[in-house]
């Protein structure tokens, strides 16, 4: 094997090991790890990223996300009746009660998340490098800007000038986190991808 190829393989292995070490050592996780249950919808503020934990009879449990718009309304990526199971899915504004259904509501605590990603102990330059290596560059928007971003997408079949709904690449969690952070990601889908399925 040529020497250059051996060096490339060693570099790739070192980068993978470094990424895993950084993931373990980083003082923060994904935004969806900062869920806080709320007991009263009046605790919500416009621009909050909120969600409900759904337990459908025919599918595995999942979380449905949206942006609280105030006035007892939520902007979310849904078909308006069963999130995504039937009908046309688009970004829409619905009543809080339609969004909530019979489920408990949670809010993502971005104050705690923002404190974690700005951990000064890492040093800004090192921290920025680590974030680039991990492929994430969160930009936590203010509640007002989050709401403005969500409202700008109402009526669209997709968001951020993208294609329509796709449970794996463009779902309600992608939409809500894109509105708040500029990063369209879904921890639920990431968790599915990380499952080790048995092979024959």
How would you describe what is shown here?
- This protein is of the alpha+beta class and 200 residues long.
- It has a single domain, classed as endopeptidase domain like (from Nostoc punctiforme) (endopeptidase fold (from Nostoc punctiforme)).
- It has seven helices and six strands; from the N terminus they run H-E-E-E-E-E-H-E-H-H-H-H-H.
- It has helices at residues 3-25, 96-100, 110-117, 124-134, 143-151, 172-181, 187-194; strands at residues 35-37, 49-54, 62-70, 73-78, 90-95, 105-108.
- It has a six-stranded antiparallel sheet with strand order 1-6-2-3-4-5.
- A hairpin with a 2-residue loop joins strand 3 (62-70) and strand 4.
- Helix 5 (143-151) crosses helix 6.
- The protein is globular and about 65 Å long.
- The model is unreliable at 24-28, 122-127 and 193-200 (pLDDT under 50).
Summarize the entry for a quick read.
The protein is of the alpha+beta class and 200 residues long. Helices cover 37% and strands 17% of the residues.
The share of residues in helices is 25-40%
Biggest pleated-sheet summary = 6 strands, antiparallel
Q: What is the element string, with H for helices and E for strands?
A: HEEEEEHEHHHHH
Instruction: Work out the helix count.
Output: 7
Structural class: alpha+beta
Enumerate the spans where pLDDT stays under 50 for 5 or more consecutive residues.
24-28, 122-127, 193-200
End-to-end distance, in Å?
A: 32 Å
CATH architecture: Alpha-Beta Complex
* CATH homologous superfamily caption: endopeptidase domain like (from Nostoc punctiforme)
Broad shape: globular
Number of strands: 6
Number of domains: 1
Output the strand order for the largest sheet. Answer: 1-6-2-3-4-5
What top-tier CATH class fits best? Alpha Beta
- Average pLDDT confidence is 75
Proportion in β-strands = 15-25%
Rg, Å, rounded: 19 Å
> What is the fold-level CATH name, i.e. the topology?
endopeptidase fold (from Nostoc punctiforme)
